[in-house]
Amino acid sequence: MTNRKLYLGPLTDSRRWDRVNIRPDDVFVVTPPKCGTTWMQTIVALLFSGDPDVVTELSVKMPWVDIRIREIAEVAARLEAMQHRRSMKSHTPMDGLPLDDHAHYIYICVFRHPLDAHFSYRKHVRNIPMSWFDMWYPENDTDGITFRRFLDGGAEGFDGDAMPLAHILRHYKAACAVADRSNVSLFHYADMTRDLAGTFARVSGLLGISHPATVMDHLVQAARFDHMKANAERFAPSGGKGFMKSDTEFFHSGSSGKWHGALTDNELASYDAAMDANLEPKDRAWLEYGSEGSSAHLT
Fold it and tell me: What is the pLDDT of residues 111-157, one digit of tens each?
């Protein structure tokens, strides 16, 4: 894609992609934070290996290229040295990523109900020993600052790294704008939860990878939420390395609807107004509930 949009924040820099030599069979997992990124990466890693006991080491083997914590020269060199098929992670919207009209590398975009993603992110930032998030996500938020910033924040720069609603919407619109390409596919967290085996089948088809039915069954079991949580040091990003206060808390619940009863009527009304102002009803239904929302909208 020419004229890529710049996404530059304290944590991330989309220009880092300029340093990566992309291969024709690369696979990119592109999501807003806390929308199923690690889950989809794990599915890809399991399908790549065909081994339910594979040590995924996602932060090393399937790196988050955008994040500025690691030197891009080291990340690019590590990727260049890989002899196997590669996968990478990005929290940059599709309009900030390389996308060539003639290339066939695969983009897998994953979305989740924005409120579920927001409340999951609240938990996530408290599990990271990094004070940068305190302004957006104060620990004792008696004044409702967190949700106001979620609604008022911009889509990029400083605001984007704090994952406001505008950033989620930018991700979704940018993905929808290129969803007609054969190498771009959209997934929803709710659909993955309802039908994990079906998700595996769809991803394996995109990757052109097949395994015997018994092997696929074992891979699906390995990617179930309770199994990943019980083996958090193995499955969490940088698991076992002290990056998070608790690897297990990274897989806090995996459920949806945690925001029910946690927001005031005014907060919900403001969220509804923002969603309705930015999305057509059918798009909002899918972004919030996946295929189940789309089906309900059509009936």
Answer: 999 999 999 888 877 766 667 677 788 878 888 889 999 999 999 98
Listed residue (203, 210, 227, 209) closest to 108, CA to CA: 203
The terminus-to-terminus CA distance of the chain in angstroms comes to 37
Distance from C-alpha of 276 to C-alpha of 283, rounded to nearest angstrom: 10
Number of Cβ within a 10 Å radius of residue 133: 20
Q: What predicted TM-score, i.e. pTM, was given to this entire model?
A: 0.91
Q: Report how far residue 79's alpha carbon sits from residue 87's, in angstroms, rounded to the nearest whole number.
A: 9
* Pair 146, 71: CB distance under 8 Å: no
Tell me the C-alpha to C-alpha distance, in Å, between residue 220 and each of 1, 40, 227: 34, 12, 10
pLDDT (tens digit per residue) in 32-51: 999 999 999 999 999 999 99
Q: Which residue(s) pair with 106 in the sheet?
A: 27
Please tell me the distance from the alpha carbon of residue 272 to that of residue 297, in angstroms, as a whole number.
Answer: 16
